[in-house]
Design a protein that fits this description.
Blueprint lengths: L4 H22 L1 H10 L4 H25 L4 E3 L4 H20 L5 H5 L1 H6 L22 H11 L3 E2 H29 L1 H9 L13 H9 L8
Antiparallel strand pairs: 1-2
Length: about 220
């Protein structure tokens, strides 16, 4: 079964709706205005944002698999081993890299326990070993998983939408990171590529440690 024009439009709109809502809720300006009016929401904001992000994913993902059809391509033989090996390595990379993130802040638990009411998440610039190669390693690992799967029309369309949003989302996220970490992040951004590793654009361990220790002069957009 191939996708009809209506199904393509609906699937595209579902991903567009997710992207717009997710970006709005993550935007620093929106959070500042919301918390200026209702500061009591601050401690629970990050936790609620994470829950809502998962809930908002349900409609486009359900449509993607409900409208699955004949495969456009499937990895076979040695290519299947390679594709699945890369996907497993990406999953392992996710799990391994969590030790270098403040997962309490990421989940919202730290904000709730400290009754944090600011729009900016607490914490300082942290660079994992993967951050020495790309500025958004989780996005890069996610792209590896997405593009090593077998594809039908619905999955390909969704993968293209997610890829575009991860790229655009990384640009929006960097505005917040510049606001949080100022000159240190600006220097880091000049040295390391965003999503795809490039030869000659790798931070040494000492350079990464120096950036993390650098004083922050925040840039407010």
């Amino acid at each position: 079964m191939t996708l009809s024009t209506n199904e393509i439009v609906i699937l595209l709109l579902s991903w567009l709706g997710y992207a717009v809502l997710h970006s709005l809720l993550a935007a620093l300006g929106f959070k500042r205005r919301l918390l200026a009016r209702w500061p009591g929401l601050g401690p629970a904001y990050r936790f609620a944002f994470n829950i809502l992000a998962v809930i908002l994913l349900i409609p486009p993902l359900w449509l993607t698999y409900a409208w699955s059809g004949p495969l456009l391509w499937a990895w076979q033989g040695p290519w299947a081993w390679l594709a699945n090996g890369l996907a497993l390595a990406a999953v392992a990379g996710f799990a391994w890299s969590t030790r270098y993130y403040d997962m309490a802040v990421f989940s919202g638990r730290a904000q709730w326990q400290s009754r944090h009411r600011g729009a900016e998440d607490p914490g300082h610039l942290q660079l994992s070993p993967l951050h020495r190669y790309v500025r958004h390693p989780w996005y890069s690992l996610g792209l590896v998983i997405l593009w090593t799967r077998d594809m039908d029309e619905a999955r390909l369309l969704s993968t293209l939408c997610i890829t575009l949003y991860l790229w655009l989302g990384s640009l929006l996220e960097e505005r917040k990171l510049l606001a949080f970490h100022g000159e240190a992040y600006a220097r880091y951004r000049k040295r390391v590529p965003g999503l795809v590793p490039l030869p000659g654009h790798v931070l040494s361990t000492k350079e990464a440690q120096a950036l993390c220790r650098a004083p922050t002069r925040a840039k407010h957009p």
